[in-house]
Amino acid sequence: MLMQTHEARLKALREELKRRDLEGFIVPISDEHMSEYVGDYAQRLHWLTGFGGSAGFAAVTRDHAAIFVDGRYTVQVRDQVDESLFEYRSIPADTLGEWLIEKADKGAKIAYDSWLHTWSWVEALENVVGPKGIEMVPAASNPIDAVWADQPQPSGAAAMVHDDGLSGQSSAEKRAGIADWLSENDLDAVVVPALDSIAWLLNIRGADVAHTPVALSYVIAHSDGRAELFIAPDKMTPEVAQHLGNAVSVRGRDEFEAALGEFSGKRVSVDPDFGVVGIAQGLRAGGADFVFKRDPTILAKAIKNPAEQQGQRDAQERDGAAVSRFLRWLEETAPSGEVDELTAAAKLEGFRREHGDLRDTSFDTISAAAGHAALPHYKVDEDTNIPIPPGSIYLVDSGGQYPAGTTDITRTVWINSADGAAQPTAEMKDRFTRVLKGHIQIDQLIFPQGTNGGQIDALARQYLWEAGVDYAHGTGHGVGSFLGVHEGPQRIAKPSGGQAGTSQELFAGMICSNEPGYYKAGEYGIRIENLVLIVEQDIDGAEGRYLGFEPLTFVPLDRTLIEKGLLTEEEIAWVDSYHEKVRALIAPQLDGEDLAWLERHCAPL
C-alpha cells in the first residue's frame, strides 16, 4: 500500500525500527558515492519529510524526530516539513550527537546505513554518544527502503563515451598516472567511488543523476594500470566496451561489495570524503590493509588541460549567447507583471537548447524574484512560484552541461515597470556596486604560487564590509569539465567555519567561480557570478611564479544597478573592457533585436 502522507511514512519507519529492535535511524541526503546530487532512488529524506533541499538530514527515534539544516534552508524547511512531525534544528548550532543524547535512552541502538556515511562521520558521532551509553550500529539494510513501496529503481540509462579530443587525455594515460601514484605510495590499488572521478578517469559519461553526467558505478584501479569497472550490464554499450579496451575489466555493480574481499594482504587506498563505511568494512573483512588518502584523480581532474580549457571557452560562448537572449526577453516581457519564476526558468532553458548541444542544466535554476532573491539557494517550485514584480530586483543563477564544458552564471537585473519609470533604490544600487567592486577585485587579482582560496576571499568582501554588511556563502567553487558544477578541491571562502577546500593551493588550469553577493532578508538579493580560469602571469622581474584569472563567462551586467560614482576610474575601465569582450564574443552569434540589445548593454559607462 502506498503511503501518501509524511505522517504515515514516519509511522511506518518507526514500526520497521521496532521490528528490528532499533531505537532510531539517521536519514541523510546521500547515495553510495557521497554525491552532491543523488538519483531519485536515493531521495529518502525527501520521501520521508518533504524537504527538497540539497543538504540536511533527519534523525528519527521511536518517540522523537528532527530535521537538521543549515542557514541556507531555514525558510525552505519550514515551508516543506511539518513541524508537528519533525522539529527544526539548525546546523551548526545544533548537533546530532547532542540531540541523540537528549532524546535517546541509555543503551539505545541508533542505526545508520553504512553505504550512506563516511568513516569519519560515524567515528565522530560515536565519540560523542558512546560515553553516554548510546550505540551506533550499521543497519543490515536501509529500513526506509523496506517501507518505501514505490521507491524508484536506480537509473538504467546507458553509459556513453566522452571523446578524447574533449578530455585532452586518454583513459590509458590517466590510469598510468594513477598507477604511478600507487607505486609512489606503496599501494596495490585504490577504490574510486566518486562518480565524477570515475567518469574523468575512464573518459565516460552517463545520465543517471540529474545535472551531473555520470553513470552509477565503482572503479578499483591497480598499480599495473589495470582497472575494474563495476557497472550494471545494461548500461554497457559496444561503443563503451570498445573504448575501455582490454585493460579495463567490466563486472556487475552488484559484485562490488564482494570484490572488496579480494585484497587480502594488499594495501588499498580509499578517499576519506567519498569512501563510505561499507567500503572500509568490506576491505577490512577481506583482510586488506586499507588506508585513507585523497582520491588521486581529484587534483588531476581539477587542473584542466589545454583541450578542457578550450572546451570551456567554447561552451561559455554558446551559453553566453543563450543567456543574453534570455535577458533581452526578460527585459521586454517582465514589466507586464505576467512572467513568473518558473516561466522565466523554463524560458532560459529553452534558449540554451536552441543554441544546441545542451545535455542538461548543471543545477536547478535559481529563478528568484524580490524577497526570494534574498535566499541564496532558493529553489522555485509550484508551491513557491510567484510573478516577478515590476519595479523589483530579479536574480537568476543557472548553468548548462555541454560536452565541451560546464557553465554556471548569475546575473542580477532590475525589472522595470510597464511605464518604464520604476527605479532601483539608492541602497540597491549601492549594494550592487559594492558586490561588483568585490567581483572586480577577484577578477584582476595577481597572486603568487602557493596561495589558497581562503587567503583571497576577503578581497571580494571588503567593500561590503565598509558598509557593515556581508554574505554568508563562499566566494568561489571549482567547476568540472562536463562534470560536476561544484567540483573540489579548490574553494574561495572564509578560512574559518569549516569551509572545505579553503586551504587547497590554487594551480594554473583550475576553474573557479567568482560570485560575491548581498542579501536583504525579505526584500532583495544580489549576486554577480562569472567563471574564471587560473592562468600563469608573465611579469617582468617577477621573483617566483605568479598566477591570475582569465574570465570565461561573457554576458552583460545590468547597468541600471551600477552607481557609477562608487567606481574608480580603473573599475569603470574594467566594466567597459569586460563589455567590449562580451560584444566581441557574443555579437557574432546574435542578430536583429537580440544584437541591438547586446550593443546597447555593452556601450561604455
Automatic annotation (TrEMBL):
Domain (Creatinase N-terminal): give its ranges: 9-140
Per UniProt, residues of the Peptidase M24 C-terminal domain are 546-605
> Is the keyword Hydrolase in the record?
yes
Query: Pfam families, alphabetically?
Result: Creatinase_N, Creatinase_N_2, Peptidase_M24, Peptidase_M24_C
InterPro entries reported in the protein's UniProt record = Creatin/AminoP/Spt16_N, Creatinase/aminopeptidase-like, Creatinase_N, Pept_M24, Pept_M24B, Peptidase_M24_C, X-Pro_aminopeptidase_P
Q: What keywords are assigned to this protein? A: Aminopeptidase, Hydrolase, Metal-binding, Protease
User: Which domain of life, per UniProt?
Assistant: Bacteria
Provide the GO MF annotations for this entry: aminopeptidase activity
Q: Which residues form the Peptidase M24 domain?
A: 313-535
Report the family membership: Belongs to the peptidase M24B family.
Name-wise, this protein is Aminopeptidase P family protein
Organism, per UniProt?
Answer: Erythrobacter rubeus
